[in-house]
Every structure is written in structure tokens, then in C-alpha cells.
Design a protein that fits this description.
- The structure is a single chain.
- This protein is about 45% helix and about 10% strand.
- It is α+β, with helices and mostly antiparallel strands.
- It has six domains: about 100 residues; about 70 residues, no CATH class; about 190 residues, no CATH class; about 70 residues, no CATH class; about 140 residues, no CATH class; about 110 residues, no CATH class.
- The strands form six sheets. The chain has a five-stranded antiparallel β-sheet.
Length: about 850
């Protein structure tokens, strides 16, 4: 068969060098052809390999050795051609490669994640295996991963992998390396137990699997297994111990779990549940594994959901309070749909077993973590005293020495004589911090849950609970319809009168919608008077009412349309707020809108978006996901209405309706309960306020080809959203208390700051800055730390990072003569 050559002069050079017996020139030419073809033979492959196949064996041996030399040298100029050179060796020269060169060649292959052509590599590995009786562990790992991941790998590789039993796990991951290092010294029964973990190939353990596992656990001892396995699991997620060559996967392959080891890891977790490891340390590790395994890697997605699900399964099999606490915490934090489904099912089963509602189980699942009163735990370690304190803004661990004086660091005697207790105490701090965050998010979602409590149960679960009480005492509640807050050791009205309701009084979360303006303002002043920092916005919560424009459009809102959002940030925010969304790829496919189901109200809210841009690589990630989306309407449908879908790149949404059924129209906005409408619009305002490219101070040029310049400017300095208006009202009260009050004032959409070099206008929505004269743009990129904020200035709620950014910029610019950052100084001095 004749093929057309893209590089005929190169093919001719191969023939010439072969005829001249010039091995060095032939190797260089082969590398050049491979490089020109992007690492593939392209149309020149048959012509080139025909030349190689026609060489005498002695010359093919020399050529093979020279190619191995080049591969081993790792010439960076070869680029992707190295892979092609290896393909030549395993496909066309394998039969003549000397065993010593084969070992060197396989050493190169062992630095890969997988290899193709798989059978050719398997055949070369067979040569070395038959000669040496074994194979290097890293190479075995490549062969196993290749068999699992490469389509149609073939019988040669499959037979070899089935025959090679050692090492038991693939080396290169910290946890697997520890297993392999410890296994010889653990004694009888342990190798068989670890081998059994490799049979955990189903989604859940079968009865037969568990019977065999139970027998093996009894041989090694269940307590012994628990202690050893927790040591292994503590290393899961650590950086690889054996780096791999970067490959064209579109993501950092070193962040992925080894798929062969992941099966064993699932078995290790199932065994942990059978061993009955229901204590704080074990369940804490299981909870960490869920989060670690779902941590997203750009281009890959979650690292390994099947391991995360196995950890959830293990937690669900443990009956104690520690496992239940982890399940409840994870349910409030995990957004990955498959694992969240497993978590929900586990909690539902627990609720059924306890004959309680799901909401009650989530409330009762929160442990005290050793706190003996609301927000406080005291431990005596030798002559020193440790105090764990839960405050607004986080968890603190404070120390006093033998004399009772506060000290900043852990006393040396505690480190020396109480290492285990200290380790447990530090772990408790982390546990409390994680649970506190999860409970704040759960409480924030209660506005739409229509949750109602009897006072006695509510008091035990929310007001006097050692941990949740630190949140409940900073919120406003309706007790038999009377708004109350906690101050001075008692529930009080906004006027300070103590409230003493009966045990059957009805308690709900207070929401500002529908309340008199005077009442809302009074509660804001109450928070400031009592220095109460709410865990999320409640008294200062934005309220969104129907506008005249929305009354005219009737069934949709355009209030947050025509914005350009960073897709991945929007996607993450949507998940946190309970919305269902799919990342849009630049492909010929359809996607539903971002949606939030509201079963308590029988409604579904939709936020319509579409991919932005049409240049692959410029407007997408390497994996093809749009970097940005453009927003459109907000609509509401009955919960059971057919799903809308639109092409990834836009073109309008349509309902997919079953044959014989009729489309379901969106509901008139005036029929949506005001609380539902307000909370949904608040979510959408959050998406825009956080994910808009208009918030990026480095986008003054408008992004790719300047196409978003007009939008960036209109958003970055335009009208304020509801969130920004709340920010403005609060700043108007805060500015007089600032140390720089004489240099600041709130004016329209801006916080105006007078420096010594210039005057500045900080936009209250985006945080972008204009400076005098001529409203020049000043680019200051804020720190990414969540600690960016207002210093010692009291803020009545947590969670508004932009408010902290604005205040930190104001504090900086008011003393502009003290600025030392060269990037900022260069802009200030430009005239």
C-alpha cells in the first residue's frame, strides 16, 4: 500500500543513513520525524518502518541500543518524539533488543502513568521477566495501570499482569509504600488480608466478601488492624513518592489516585468498618478521606469518588455518635452529586432506625467535642491549663503556665510529657472548626426549610448546645412570634426585655422579609450594641422584592442577566448553595440550566447560562471546559416540570417533553412566595458578585482580545447590586469609627478615600479603584487569604470578603505615602 509522505525528504534521509550504516544520524533523523509529526508517525510511518524492518539483525541491535541511549539521556529537544521512539523499539525492534538494553528501556517506561501500545510493552517486559524472574515494582505499576486504563490492551499484557504477583500494591504512593514496608514485619495473616482488599471491585461489599474479611480480621486481630490501617490511611492524598513524566492528560497526573491501589484502598476502608473502628480518631480519618478523595484537580475533576464513597460506606456501618457526626458534617459540606447521594441515604437510614426525622438526626448528630459549656473546654495537662474557646471568627486554643499566666505557645512540659493529649486536643480544634463551618451552612439553609421547633428541644439543640450554641446565640429567633436575641445570659427582645417562654412555645428563624423597616434597623443596632457577630447575614440580609420590570416580564427576571462569570467559580458557588449545575464544554451537546430544587415549596428555580466565546484554548481549559459563561434569565417552575436544555454555546432553552405530554410554562413571579423569591435572587446575586470577571482588578484590558472591556467597566464601576447596597449602608455606619475616618466618606457607589498623594474612589460592588485626577484606574490585587479585612473594626456578620477587601484598600490608600509595593507606587507616580 502506498501512502503520501508529509516529509519525503526526511524519509529519503532515513533510507540514506540506513544505506550508509550511519546509526547516529539515523537515530537523529527518526527523532526529527517523530517531532515534526507531533509525536506520531503520521503518513511517514510505514515508509520509515519498512526501512527499519529490512535491516540485518546486527544493525537492528545497534540501532535499538542507540535509541535506548537517546531515551535514557532524555534529550529535552526530543519533546513528544521520545514516546514515538519507544514505540519503534517495542513494535519493530523488540526481538533484537539485548536484555540489558531492555532493562534500561523499561526503566524509562516505568516513569509513565500508562503506556501504549500496551501489548508491545508487555512483550518487552516478558523478555526481562523471563530472564530475571521478576520485574521492578514501578514497571509493574505501569503495566497494571495500563491494563486498567488503556482500551484493548490485549492478551499479552493481561497474561503477564496476571502472572506477576509482586509487589502486592503499586509503589509510588505514600500510603502504599508504607503498606509494602510494614507488611513483612506484621506477621501471619496480614499479606492475605491486604490481598483480599484487592478484590473490593464492587460498589459495595458482598456478603461473601465480608465473611472472608471477617475470618481474616480475626486472624490478625481487629484492634490491631484498626491501629495499623489508620496509619496507612493517614498518608492517603500525600504527594507521590515516585514522580511520573508529565503526560498529555490535560491535568497533573500526580494528583490522581493510582487506580490499582484505589481498589485496595476501598477494601481497607470496608475492613475498617468491619473492625468496628467507631471512635473520634477513626471517624475523623474517614471524614478526611471523603474530602481528600473529592478534592478537584483541574482537568481531572474529583480525585477518586469511589474511594470517597467507600469511606462514606464505612461511616454508615458504624453506629456510634462519632460516625453520625461525620456523616452530618459531610452532608452539609460535600457537593459532589454521587457521594452526596450516598451521604443522604446513610442519614436517611439512620433517621428511620431512630424513628426521627432527617432534620432531627442532623441536629442530634453534633457532638460536644468535650466542651463543658457553650463554646468552652478546659483541660489540665500537668501544671499547664489549655482552654479551647469557640468565638466569632473561629476556634482558639489558649494556654496558661503553672503560675496561671497566659503564654503564647504550648508549654515545653506539655510537649514533653503529654504528647498524646496535646495531639488529641489539636485534633479537636480542627474537628470543632470543621463542624462549626458545616453547622453555619446548615443553619443558613434553614430560612427556606420552614423548620419549626418546640422551645424545649430548640433550647437543647441550638441555644444551650456546647457547640451549636455558639451559633444559635448569635442569631435572631421568633419565639411564639416575638423576635428574640441572646444577651446577658438570657433571651431578650430588641428592647432588652427578658423572654421566658414555655416548653411548647414555637421557635423559628427570623428573616427580615416582611418585617417592618424600623424593626430590621433596630435589630442591626442591637447587634452593634451587644457586639454580636452573626455567623452569616441575618439582620443585614439582603431582601429582593419584585421590581416593576419583573412585573412586566411576568414569568422571568432579567435582573442578573448579561453578566460574564468565571465558570468554574460559579460552578463551585452553585454547589455550595445547593444548586445543581454542569460544567459546560465546548462540544456539540446540550445542558440544563443551573437549578435549585425547593421540595418544601414544590418549586424549582432556574438560572439560565451559556458558554462564552468560540476559540478553543483561549476560551476553554485544555480539557475543553468553557472558562466563562454568560448569564440570562431566572425562572421558576413546578418541581416536577420537564427539564429545560440548551446547547452549550447558547441558542435558547427548550423543554424535553415525553411523547404525548405538554410543555410546562414557567410560573408567574407574582405567585412565587416572597421568601423563596428573595432567597433565590440572593443566591444569584452572590454568583454574580463573586464570580463576575468585573471583580478581577487585572481585567482592565477586557480579557481575550479586549472583548469584555465594556462589560468590565460597566460592572466594575456601575450600579450597585443588593449585596453592595447592604455593604454601602453598613459602611456608612462603620466609617465614622475608623482610625482614618477623617479621610473617608461614603458617596454614591463609592468609598472615597483621601490620601496624601491622590484621592481614591473604591467601588462598593467590585472593589475596583479610580484615582484622581481624571479617574485613572488603580490596580491593586487583594490577598487571597480569608483574613483580609478590617483590622480591629467591628463587623456584625461573617462571610462578606469583599467588605474586608474594600476596608483593607481604604486603610492602605489613606496612608499612601507609606506604600512600598513597587507595582502600586509605579501607578501612583504616573502622571
Amino acid at each position: 500500500m502506498t501512502t503520501t509522505s508529509f516529509y519525503p525528504e526526511r524519509v529519503e534521509a532515513v533510507r540514506r543513513h540506513a544505506a550508509d550504516d550511519d546509526t547516529a544520524a539515523l537515530v537523529a533523523e527518526l527523532a526529527e520525524i517523530a517531532c515534526l509529526n507531533g509525536g506520531h508517525w503520521g503518513y511517514d510511518g510505514r515508509a520509515v518502518t519498512d526501512v527499519l524492518d529490512g535491516l540485518p539483525d546486527d544493525r537492528r541491535i545497534r540501532l535499538a541500543t542507540a535509541l535506548v541511549d537517546r531515551l535514557e539521556a532524555g534529550d529535552p529537544d526530543d519533546g513528544t518524539s521520545l514516546d514515538t521512539l519507544l514505540t519503534i523499539l517495542v513494535r519493530h525492534l523488540r526481538a533484537v533488543v539485548p536484555v540489558a538494553d531492555a532493562r534500561r528501556l523499561l526503566g524509562y517506561a516505568a516513569r509513565q502513568w500508562t503506556w501504549w501500545p500496551a501489548d508491545e510493552l508487555g512483550g518487552l517486559a516478558r523478555v526481562v521477566h523471563d530472564a530475571d524472574g521478576t520485574l521492578p515494582g514501578q514497571l509493574v505499576a505501569v503495566l497494571r495501570r495500563t491494563l486498567l486504563n488503556v482500551y484493548r490492551s490485549g492478551a499479552v499484557l493481561e497474561d503477564l499482569v496476571r502472572e506477576v504477583r509482586e509487589p502486592l500494591l503499586n509503589p509510588g504512593e505514600a500510603w502504599a509504600d508504607r503498606v509494602l514496608a510494614e507488611l513483612p514485619g506484621l506477621g501471619a495473616g496480614w499479606p492475605e488480608l491486604v490481598a483480599h482488599t484487592l478484590t473490593a471491585t464492587a460498589a459495595r461489599p458482598t456478603a461473601k466478601w465480608e465473611r472472608q474479611a471477617g475470618t481474616l480480621l480475626d486472624r490478625v486481630g481487629r484492634d490491631a488492624y484498626r491501629d495499623v490501617a489508620l496509619g496507612w490511611l493517614s498518608l492517603v492524598g500525600w504527594p507521590r513518592t515516585a514522580p511520573l513524566r508529565p503526560a498529555a492528560f490535560g491535568y497533573d497526573i500526580s494528583q490522581a489516585y493510582d487506580p490499582y491501589n484505589a481498589t485496595a484502598l476501598r477494601g481497607v476502608l470496608w475492613l475498617l468498618a468491619l473492625a468496628g473502628a467507631d471512635d473520634a480518631g477513626a471517624t475523623r480519618e474517614l471524614g478526611r478521606l471523603v474530602e481528600t478523595s473529592l478534592r478537584k484537580v483541574p482537568g481531572l475533576g474529583p480525585r477518586n469518588p469511589k474511594v470517597a464513597n467507600a469511606a462514606v460506606h464505612a461511616l454508615s456501618r458504624l453506629d456510634g455518635e462519632h460516625a453520625l457526626a461525620q456523616l452530618a458534617r459531610l452532608t452539609a459540606r460535600i457537593t459532589y452529586k454521587g457521594t452526596l447521594k450516598e451521604l443522604n441515604a446513610a442519614l436517611d437510614r439512620r433517621a428511620t432506625a431512630l424513628r426521627l426525622s432527617r432534620a432531627e438526626v442532623e441536629e442530634l448528630a453534633v457532638p460536644a467535642y468535650g466542651l463543658t459549656e457553650v463554646g468552652r473546654r478546659v483541660e489540665t495537662l500537668g501544671d499547664a491549663t489549655a482552654e479551647l474557646v469557640v468565638e466569632a471568627g473561629g476556634v482558639a486554643l489558649r494556654w496558661r503556665n503553672a503560675a496561671g499566666r497566659p503564654v503564647r505557645t504550648v508549654p515545653a512540659a506539655v510537649r514533653r510529657d503529654h504528647a498524646d493529649e496535646l495531639r488529641e486536643l489539636k485534633a479537636a480544634v480542627k474537628d470543632v472548626d470543621k463542624m462549626l463551618s458545616a453547622q453555619a451552612e446548615r443553619l443558613d439553609r434553614q430560612f427556606l426549610a420552614q423548620r419549626c421547633w418546640r422551645f424545649a428541644a430548640w433550647r437543647a439543640r441550638y441555644l444551650d448546645h456546647p457547640l451549636v450554641g455558639t451559633l444559635g446565640r448569635r442569631l435572631i429567633w421568633l419565639v411564639d412570634g416575638v423576635p428574640c436575641g441572646f444577651a446577658g445570659g438570657a433571651l431578650r427582645t430588641v428592647d432588652g426585655a427578658a423572654v421566658a417562654p414555655g416548653d411548647d412555645a414555637e421557635v423559628r428563624l427570623w428573616h427580615p422579609i416582611g418585617r417592618a423597616v424600623a424593626e430590621v434597623l433596630a435589630w442591626r443596632e442591637w447587634l452593634e450594641r451587644h457586639a454580636v457577630v452573626q455567623p452569616f447575614k441575618q439582620a443585614h440580609r439582603e431582601v429582593y422584592l419584585l421590581t416593576a420590570a419583573e412585573e412586566r416580564t411576568g414569568v422571568y427576571s432579567n435582573r442578573f442577566a448579561a453578566h460574564v462569570l468565571r465558570q468554574h467559580q460559579f460552578h463551585a458557588l452553585a454547589a455550595v448553595r445547593g444548586w445543581r449545575n454542569r460544567l459546560r464544554l465546548m462540544v456539540d451537546d446540550s445542558y440544563p440550566p443551573a437549578s435549585r430544587e425547593l421540595p418544601e415549596w414544590g418549586l424549582r428555580a432556574e438560572y439560565w447560562v451559556e458558554g462564552a466565546g468560540d476559540e478553543y484554548g483561549t476560551d476553554t481549559t485544555e480539557a475543553g471546559a468553557y472558562l466563562r459563561v454568560v448569564t440570562d434569565q431566572v425562572r421558576f417552575y413546578p418541581l416536577a416540570a420537564p427539564e429545560n436544555n440548551a446547547h452549550a454555546g447558547g441558542g435558547g432553552y427548550e423543554q424535553w417533553v415525553r411523547p404525548g405530554a405538554d410543555p410546562v410554562a414557567p410560573l408567574p413571579l407574582e405567585q412565587i412566595p416572597p421568601l423563596v423569591f428573595s432567597e433565590v435572587m440572593r443566591d444569584v446575586d452572590l454568583f454574580v458578585g463573586v464570580a463576575s470577571v468585573g471583580n478581577d482588578p487585572t481585567w482592565q484590558d477586557g480579557g481575550p482580545a479586549g472583548r469584555y472591556r465594556e462589560y468590565w467597566h460597566s460592572y466594575g464601576f456601575g450600579e450597585l447590586s443588593g449585596t453592595a447596597e447592604t455593604r454601602r449602608d453598613l459602611l456608612a455606619r462603620l466609617v465614622p469609627r475608623l482610625a482614618i475616618a477623617d479621610r473617608c466618606r461614603v458617596e454614591g457607589r463609592f468609598l472615597v478615600v483621601r490620601g496624601d498623594l491622590r484621592s481614591y474612589q473604591i467601588h462598593l460592588g467590585s472593589g475596583n479603584i479610580l484615582m484622581s485626577p481624571n479617574d485613572e484606574y488603580l490596580c491593586i490585587v487583594p490577598q487571597q487569604s480569608a483574613a483580609v479585612g478590617a483590622g480591629d473594626v467591628f463587623l456584625p456578620f461573617e462571610g462578606d470578603r469583599m467588605l474586608g477587601v474594600i476596608l483593607s484598600k481604604a486603610l492602605l490608600l489613606a496612608r499612601d505615602t507609606e506604600i512600598t509595593d513597587p507595582t502600586i507606587l509605579a501607578q501612583l507616580r504616573r502622571r
